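tokens incoming
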């Protein structure tokens, strides 16, 4: 498979896509409707192995937590490439939904979710800017720290 310009940008950032992104339950990793691609939530795992666990602790490291969200975004990109054939076929990132495992009253869920948002913006520029919801929850699958889903518009 030829490396896309987006994947070259990933490499320049010191990142790569995982070699797999398995589903943990009975759902599709993505569903396409016309030019819209709905990507199922992805936790912070690498090739199916969870890497960051929640809930976020009192003296957490923001940069490490943002890396967990970034890992979710890499899994989303893996599935976007599988659905679209190439990341070059992404026209726009429309929306992200981010979920952070945190105790009640934790104020920094949106800052953690920025790890995923910043990756999409770094890769796709203005087309990577998106609407977003970022909420804290009491738990996530596999006790993950973060889960992110997305809606992406593909080129016609």
């Amino acid at each position: 498979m030829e490396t896309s310009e987006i994947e070259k940008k990933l490499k320049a950032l010191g990142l790569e896509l995982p070699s797999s992104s398995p589903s943990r339950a009975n759902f599709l990793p993505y569903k396409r409707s016309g030019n819209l691609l709905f990507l199922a939530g992805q936790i912070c795992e690498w090739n199916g192995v969870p890497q960051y666990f929640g809930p976020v602790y009192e003296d957490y490291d923001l940069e490490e937590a943002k890396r967990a969200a970034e890992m979710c975004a890499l899994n989303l990109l893996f599935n976007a490439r599988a659905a679209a054939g190439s990341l070059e076929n992404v026209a726009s990132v429309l929306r992200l939904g981010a979920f952070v495992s945190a105790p009640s009253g934790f104020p920094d869920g949106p800052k953690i979710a920025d790890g995923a948002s910043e990756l999409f913006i770094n890769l796709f520029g203005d087309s990577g800017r998106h609407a977003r919801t970022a909420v804290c929850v009491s738990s996530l699958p596999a006790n993950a720290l973060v889960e992110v889903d997305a809606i992406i518009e593909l080129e016609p």
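note: The longest helix spans residues 62-84.
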